[in-house]
């Protein structure tokens, strides 16, 4: 009797995992298909407008109507409600890159223009990143069902440092990175140390390269942490020092845009600690919001 109940429970759990996986797979397919159809519809409008030139207002209206009618916004909303938290950012970034294409084509830029080609490349990269995250999610479901663990790989040690920059309102400056192993995630400016470089020196250099800010000084050490990812095709285990600095609320310097693109940085944002803690976004380190909230909270009075 007892063994029958255990077998029934195991079968029920396996079936539930299979159903959940299939539901997510259907959502992923619908979302990516809708994004592709929206892009194709806007391209068709732009191509037609090149054959039969119209006023700027008419072009803008037709491109935006093609975007709206595709249902891509509804597909995105359905996906972000149902998918695991680590996939929300990837889908959002893919959707935002599609909106950039919409805005470029609505402005009248032809398909062979630099703005459209840049937007198209960015959307392709964002979509591929989302696809990779989706495959990881669906693959992890198969491992959970079979009970097998992913095979470990040798990793190269790497030392790195980052700076959590807080503005006068207590918001933290974050960059949205796209990594070939772990996908889209948010992290502070920073990166690997050069030979002979201290963590503070490396953090300051990396921040200058990625933001163009050269007037900040790393303050107290917030934490250290270690994590695995792949860099330039090499699996690494990175040990990071994270410092805190305070500065004005501002945008990154435009001269650092090339460095950000080279590092796979998709976007940047000032984020409140409360919003970050509640977002469910993939963040390096995962406990960043909690650590900064504790840092900003007044201590007990004497």
Any descriptors?
302 residues, alpha+beta, Four Helix Bundle (Hemerythrin (Met), subunit A), Nucleoside Triphosphate Pyrophosphohydrolase, 2 domains, 4-stranded mixed β-sheet, 3-stranded antiparallel β-sheet, 9 helices, 19% strand
What would your notes on this structure say?
The structure is a single chain. With 302 residues, the chain is of the alpha+beta class. It folds into 2 domains: 2-145, Four Helix Bundle (Hemerythrin (Met), subunit A) (Up-down Bundle); 156-296, Nucleoside Triphosphate Pyrophosphohydrolase (Alpha-Beta Complex). The protein has 9 helices and 7 strands. It has helices at residues 2-51, 56-69, 72-82, 85-106, 114-146, 199-211, 257-262, 273-279, 288-296, and strands at residues 156-166, 172-179, 183-187, 190-192, 221-231, 234-246, 265-271. The strands form 2 sheets. Strands 4-1-6-5 form a 4-stranded mixed sheet, with helices on both faces. Strands 3-2-7 form a 3-stranded antiparallel sheet. Strand 2 and strand 3 form a beta hairpin. Helix 1 packs antiparallel against helix 5 (114-146), helix 3 (72-82) runs antiparallel to helix 4 (85-106) and helix 8 (273-279) packs antiparallel against helix 9. It is globular and about 55 Å long. The protein starts with a helix and ends in a 6-residue tail after the last helix.
